[in-house]
Amino acid sequence: xxxxxxxxxxxxxxxxxxxxxxxxxxxxxxxxxxxxxxxxxxxxxxxxxxxxxxxxxxxxxxxxxxxxxxxxxxxxxxxxxxxxxxxxxxxxxxxxxxxxxxxxxxxxxxxxxxxxxxxxxxxxxxxxxxxxxxxxxxxxxxxxxxxxxxxxxxxxxxxxxxxxxxxxxxxxxxxxxxxxxxxxxxxxxxxxxxxxxxxxxxxxxxxxxxxxxxxxxxxxxxxxxxxxxxxxxxxxxxxxxxxxxxxxxxxxxxxxxxxxxxxxxxxxxxxxxxxxxxxxxxxxxxxxxxxxxxxxxxxxxxxxxxxxxxxxxxxxxxxxxxxxxxxxxxxxxxxxxxxxxxxxxxxxxxxxxxxxxxxxxxxxxxxxxxxx
Amino acid sequence: xxxxxxxxxxxxxxxxxxxxxxxxxxxxxxxxxxxxxxxxxxxxxxxxxxxxxxxxxxxxxxxxxxxxxxxxxxxxxxxxxxxxxxxxxxxxxxxxxxxxxxxxxxxxxxxxxxxxxxxxxxxxxxxxxxxxxxxxxxxxxxxxxxxxxxxxxxxxxxxxxxxxxxxxxxxxxxxxxxxxxxxxxxxxxxxxxxxxxxxxxxxxxxxxxxxxxxxxxxxxxxxxxxxxxxxxxxxxxxxxxxxxxxxxxxxxxxxxxxxxxxxxxxxxxxxxxxxxxxxxxxxxxxxxxxxxxxxxxxxxxxxxxxxxxxxxxxxxxxxxxxxx
Lengths: 372, 324
Ligand code: SF4
Ligand code: FES
Known about the structure:
- The complex is a heterodimer.
- Chain A is α+β, with helices and mostly antiparallel strands.
- Chain A is 21% helix and 15% strand.
- Chain A folds into 2 domains: 1-270, Ubiquitin-like (UB roll) (Roll); 276-370, 3-Layer(aba) Sandwich (GIY-YIG endonuclease), CATH 3.40.1440.
- In chain B, α2 crosses α8, α3 (157-167) packs parallel to α5 and α6 (210-232) crosses α7.
- Chain B has 2 domains: 2-112 and 271-317, ATPase, nucleotide binding domain (Nucleotidyltransferase, domain 5); 121-258, ATPase, nucleotide binding domain (Nucleotidyltransferase, domain 5, 2-Layer Sandwich), CATH 3.30.420.40.
- Chain B has 8 helices and 10 strands.
- In chain B, 35% of the residues lie in helices and 18% in strands.
- Iron/sulfur cluster binds at residues 178-184, 218, 239-240, 242, 244-245 of chain A.
């Protein structure tokens, strides 16, 4: 069937949701409780069952008649006209994000010193319970906040939550971080290898600093995961966007655990990061100032991160050398201390990817004995 | 001792290969590491260490780079004209006016540590003047991954300087004296350098010995750094570079916390863990020089190619301490 997303025609198979259609059209719509491959958040409620998790409401879009609907929960219909972005939609998303953040520690996300900080000691004296968790820098919720609140419009408060953590087998639970999206409980219910050990329940007490009714939180159906029949398949960790459930052995929350028969770990669609095409015109608009630039390939993968005293000049050089490299896009960040900033951004990249960007590797022939 | 003594200063460090035949010194390559606190220069001739010099970074980075180079070159009569290739590194790398190329301090530290401590090194802890990095590298000293902490001076050279100054203990003695205690005190709760002064003073007033306060500080720094190391994971061999790498009060406590002993240089080694960055830069300079010569050689149809870095002969870069 055909419909229009932001004026562009797109064809999707029957049974698609509006969110699927937006993805097919390459228009990113924020989403949190939606997770690829899982039943839709509304399915249980529609079937007469209780809605066991809160809809995040972030995927709100405007349909042809001007009404606001949830893209993940609405079936696409032929001829629909969808608007994915306007000031009102942005405001609604911000409001919903604010209520999610009201119960989840997040102060590090907006800290000017966020890169290069180990979060062991806080320069600004924020309590450990208000700081971000070990998934900082690679967590899905953080990426989402960066997209929905790119202008840092939301007041960032020192929300504290209990940071007690339990590790059973390969699964670590820090349930004070749970935002109640229900992804883990659904995956535990629906993945063939999982043990149906998790459920959503009422939070014991409102998180400190929260102004609204507590969101439901995930918990094992019996006291421990083991007692609840957990198979320790490790699917819930990568599914959790908030660091509440993780599988620390694997390198990071979003890295899927070992794949088992019958079920493949899904990769959630993440917010796109800003980038400009590497063209003369775009480069001409960059100021001749000190900073750090990212060069990206056509698929948006980072090729190289370099600090330069004059980012425009460095980009002009990259442009000239374009035939040799495959750089298609760039991103700049102005910073006078650009050598240090370069290291920080390299460290951030290395933490997320487990290696340096390909263009930052020192050539193999500079390691001594390789030359004849 | 004059009343104006600056306890935080590491003395300048200089070394030249003994019995060097000045005529035989050709194909000199230089590595200059301009850090936020100290600057180092390392000179190689044909890939072999001939000289290094370590000094404090002044207010002008270009001056510091020149001063470091002169410190290493002058005793051997080596001037900039004698140098075939220079690589600048460190946060001030762009302020090495005579550099042919700059390479990040991360790559240089790994390469330098690999050369200094051998190809078995996989995890490097670099405790520099204003930041702390944990680097994972392969057997050639090529960086695979790294993590850093630079927002807090505690656990870095600057933090240690503040403690040295507050307690009037020369920085070289902190490590040793921090073990002159009967039992290990709890780490201080706040290693923030901003509060260090008042906290140290109140501990002294509460009857703590200077040694005990030092121990509590070293332990707190070690705890912070150990947290960073654990985030990366320690893979053996483990080696410590940078200024604080010379402070056993911190390094031994880190080893205790992570349960892995750091590789130690042989007693008679001339290497100073602080020159790892400059050494790596000089090694890259050597390889870059050879590469350039080779390209030129190929262009001219000649075969005059420099010898590769002789890693097997590394042992004779460690002349007896008496030779210094
Ligand atoms: S634990 Fe994570 S995945 Fe599960 S409901 Fe909470 S936030 Fe969602
Ligand atoms: S993604 Fe649609 S409501 Fe959460």
